[in-house]
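Go through this chain.

——
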Amino acid sequence: MAITVAQLAQQLGGQVVGEADSLIDGVATLAHALPGQLSFLANAKYQHQLAETRAGAVLVRESEAASCPVTAIIVNDPYLSYAKAVAYLYPEHRESGAIHPRATVDESASIDPSAWVGANVVVEAGARIGRGVQISPGCVIGRNVEIGVDTRLYANVSLYAEVKIGERCLLHSGAVIGSDGFGFANENGHWLKIQQIGRVIVGDDVEIGANCAIDSGAIGDTIIEEGVKLDNLIQIAHNVRIGAHTAIAGHSAVAGSSVIGKHCAIGGAVGIVGHLEICDNVTITAMSLVSKSISEPGVYSSGLPVEENREWNKRVARLGQLGKLNNRLRQLEKLKR
């Protein structure tokens, strides 16, 4: 859709400096934007691209407006305003309420007339699907599952029995919610499976990335609170609780019965061991291993940054000598006594 710069600025609560009547019909980066497209400057390292941009308008802070060679829209947070502008310029397509003839729906399931159920979807007994829900082809909705208003499931999402999904959630393709937790008891060297009888409860406004796996609780429930954002390929084990508005980047894994607080930010490929607690407002950088509880807000790291291979080999060799050096230090301390 096309909109004038003035109209867009009004939607974003911004101030126009330049041609307010020009039309915007798309978005692009500063380096590649053309007239008619919106761009933004949120990171100072791209400042040099602002001087050469051909964008129809650029979202900038007030301090950068004077150096913008094209029409500027002054906002407090260009990145946040960009997110809102994209949602406005590219409205989400939603199918009208219908059940595809190739869907299989149990007669005891309840589906709101405004919901769309695509081809090859299976909806099992007792499932309840709310107003405006969009279920793409190939999804499996298990027994007694509940899906809240305006939630969207992309293709091939699997919801096991008793799972509850809140309103306005977004589940990407391949997500599996409610699979068995990893629970086994050892009997004379053989593993005996422990029946996982809990559920997965997902709050409102949660996004779950492609190919995520969230396990059902062993006894109680696995709980994902409102506003949580999970990237692709994340493992959440049984009885984990993730606090509201926490975001976790891809390839991370949370072991069983751990509790993560609210408003946390967890980087990619982070491992969190089981039965610990992380308080609110914690940031954990990528590739870290969390092996004990965190009780104070702040930024935590444990991964080692990459370096040139020769230097890394030297560092590892020195680490291997620490035991000998420690023994020599103890001997020297004894001599001083």
